[in-house]
Amino acid sequence: MSGPQRIFLAATGQNRGKTTVSLGLAAGILRGGHRLGFLKPVGQRYLVIDGTRADEDAVLMKEVFDLPDALNDMSPVTLPRHFTTDFVMGRVTDDLASAVLEADRAVARDKDVVLIEGTGHAGVGAVIGLSNAAVAAMLDAPVLIVSEGGVGRPIDEIVLNHALFERHGVRVAGALVNKVNVDANPDLPEVLRQGLAQHGIELIGCIPFSELLANPSLELIVTHLKGELLAGDATPGAVIGGVAIGAMRADHAVPYLRDRTLIITPGDRDDLIEVALEAFQSGRERGHPLVTGVVLTGGFRPPDGLLQQLRSAGLFTYVVDTDTYRTAENVHDILVKTHPTDTDKIATIIDLVGGALSPEGLLARL
User: Among 15, 12, 8, which Cα is nearest to 213's?
Assistant: First the structure.
């Protein structure tokens, strides 16, 4: 396919950091003076903007970088509920492949580089005839595979995905491993490099682990958990440092409080709520917040006097109807996504990806 250079970002699974890499790579490409187009051929999580259904990553990239293309070109195929069933049963008659090709032509017009972001692993989308491998082949786009830290798992996953891309005749430009804790294991990048080289795959770089990127913000807690905000604010930039389950005596819970802990506890445990409040206030005075918020479970609200203290202090306090175990699971399962308003997070992403990956060096490989 003629025209601009194309790079297809694939991942070995969900939450591997594909959107993180998209943001960092796009920033570097634009910084190099290249005209950039962004394409998300198949979107599973979408928003409706001015009547147009568009993948949330396409919305993110358009807003963050003020990209000129229309959202329906940047995100040509989205999958509403029951879409895959309807497709399999023959109730979808749209030519999805043609829609992707037309969108690519529109986005590529007058561009130097088109960044294409896949969805999940190489086989995702096969049910509608648009697997990542098939789309990358259709668009004649070399692939960068994104995985995450570890040794065995990332190598296994990258090799598996590489095989499917290879089967479709797609060239894999290399692999990028995200969330690598180089402080704890400084030799890991070299281990990964040699491990992948044994399978003919080049390690392009490693992105260091960042707690800011790994953990959700208070805003996402409110967005994803059904409940009521009793005190404080659901601040987008207030990132949770860790989670503590309040199922023990209050004095025993104190050692478990770390930097910016979110405490999940039954709403009738006044003793634990008081500990959280005290830790929040003392930490704020020292400029080192031990507690960033409290999620109260079981639908129990604190007594009026204690609630007033929470409101006066401004401690994020959110009550949900689910039990503590289910609530903790829900918090853990929150899909941490980056939003256009997460300016600190985006700045960190651009810095980390820029340090791990040279956009010019990657483009020279294509």
Answer: 15
**In angstroms, rounded to a whole number, what is the distance separating the alpha carbons of residues 296 and 288?**
23
Neighbour count for residue 270 (Cβ, 10 Å): 16
Between vectors from CA 180 to CA 179 and to CA 185, what angle results, nearest 5°? 150
Cβ atoms of 96 and 130 closer than 8 Å:
yes
Tokens 């890499």 locate to: 21
Q: In angstroms, rounded to a whole number, what is the distance separating the alpha carbons of residues 187 and 194? A: 11
> Residue 255, Cβ neighbours under 10 Å: how many?
8
Cα–Cα distance for residue pair 142/62, rounded to 1 Å: 23
DSSP one-letter code for 127: G
Cα separation, 308 vs 312, in Å, equals 6
Residues of the chain scoring pLDDT < 50: none
Residue-wise pLDDT tens digits, 135-181: 999 999 999 999 988 889 999 999 999 999 999 999 999 999 999 98
Q: Could you tell me the domains of the chain?
A: 5-211+339-365 (3.40.50.300), 216-333 (3.40.1390.20)
Contact criterion met (CB below 8 Å) for 206 and 223:
no
Contact predicate 147/11, CB 8 Å: yes
Alpha helices in 248-333 (DSSP H): 250-253, 270-286, 304-313, 324-333
